[in-house]
Write a structure and sequence with these properties.
Layout (H helix, E strand, L loop, with lengths): L6 H4 L5 H10 L8 H22 L4 H12 L2 H4 L8 H20 L6 H15 L3 H18 L6 H12 L4 H10 L8 E3 L2 E4 L3 H7 L5 H4 L3 H9 L11 H20 L3 H18 L5 H4 L11 H12 L4 H13 L1
Antiparallel strand pairs: 1-2
Helix pairs in contact: 3-4, 3-6, 3-17, 4-17, 4-18, 6-7, 6-8, 6-15, 7-8, 7-9, 8-15, 14-15, 14-17, 14-18, 15-17
């Protein structure tokens, strides 16, 4: 009788992304505008990637190619006109990262700490995977604002950022009030201890406990799912274009450090590493087994970091590699 998508658990997943689609459907009382709204979000992600690359010093040409290499990757482009929230998460992640980078550079305007906090909080309101990225960004924001020698009044900036954090939290407050855990239906664990079991079937699905095929990780099959397109089957993963982005992104991060921006490079590298670490946690086993064919959508923040840092090198060979990655997408 218990099903993985049982409503008493499913209704408590964050609804921030779905709220956008609900607003889009209101004028015509149907889903006709949904594809157009999804395309607008995809374009917003494209513009945000371009803006970050430009902020990092990329030329207009390099920034455009890097942004296209990101959003044309199947992990993003496959959801271009769908009702999925992957590109919404990507857009909010990129927007928040842009504001944090400007704060790290000391070029931010008064409102940008709040904009950064708000963007990452909204991202957490779309997916629970946004919570660790929110925590990382808030730590960086607080440390930067406190340690900055030349800055506008710090208390107002921190207070506004603290208020902005609240915008993405209504789903978690509701889950806490109704079910006793902000992460319900997912289990709440800390330091190896289960503080709240969450919805039993949701936990079993995520940890791969429902069946032998879900509970055993096959590295060879996993890599094949990430890279190989099968005839007659939709391909939703990074593919070889993603491999190219990863390699070029590593070059870009090294170049950032050499150009005297180690703080920004460390922040971007931490975002990418945290994104991937979440996917290889025990609670995400089912994503690496039963749903490995579409795990690429959860890698989008890491791919975004790679695309924008690579673009910022302004090197002709790297730019050509980004063009190839876009074509492979």
């Amino acid at each position: 009788e218990l099903a993985p998508d049982r409503w008493d658990g499913y209704e408590y997943f964050p609804y921030g992304g779905d709220a956008l689609w609900a607003w889009a459907m209101l004028p015509f009382h149907g889903d006709a505008p949904l594809a157009a709204a999804s395309v607008l979000i995809w374009l917003a992600a494209l513009a945000s990637a371009y803006a970050i690359a430009r902020e990092l010093g990329a030329s207009t040409r390099s920034a455009a190619i890097g942004a296209l290499a990101l959003v044309l990757n199947p992990a993003s482009a496959s959801f271009l006109a769908s009702g999925y929230v992957e590109n919404t998460s990507l857009f909010l992640f990129l927007a928040g990262s842009l504001f944090v980078m400007r704060i790290l550079k000391g070029t931010a305007l008064h409102a940008e700490p709040a904009l950064a906090a708000g963007a990452f909080s909204l991202g957490a309101g779309v997916k629970t995977s946004g919570l660790p990225l929110l925590a990382l960004s808030l730590g960086v924001l607080a440390a930067t604002l406190i340690l900055m020698k030349r800055h506008r009044p710090k208390v107002p900036a921190l207070a506004l950022a603290a208020l902005a954090v609240l915008v993405g939290f209504p789903p978690y407050v509701r889950a806490l009030a109704d079910r006793g855990s902000p992460l319900y239906p997912q289990a709440l664990r800390f330091a190896g201890r289960t503080l709240h079991p969450g919805h039993p079937m949701t936990d079993q699905v995520h940890t791969g406990a429902l069946g032998p095929s879900m509970g055993v990780f096959d590295a060879k099959a996993f890599v094949g799912d990430l890279l190989v397109r099968e005839p007659g089957r939709d391909f939703l993963n990074p593919g070889w274009g993603g491999v190219a982005l990863a390699a070029l992104g590593a070059v870009g991060l090294v170049a950032l450090v050499r150009r005297g921006s180690p703080g920004i490079a460390a922040f971007l590298a931490a975002e990418a590493a945290l994104t991937l670490a979440l996917l290889f946690s025990p609670d995400a086993l089912a994503l690496r087994t039963g749903w490995a064919s579409l795990i690429g959508r959860f890698m989008l923040p890491a791919l975004g970091v790679c695309a924008v840092t690579a673009a910022a090198t302004n090197h002709a060979a790297v730019r050509a590699g980004l063009g190839l990655a876009a074509l492979l997408g």
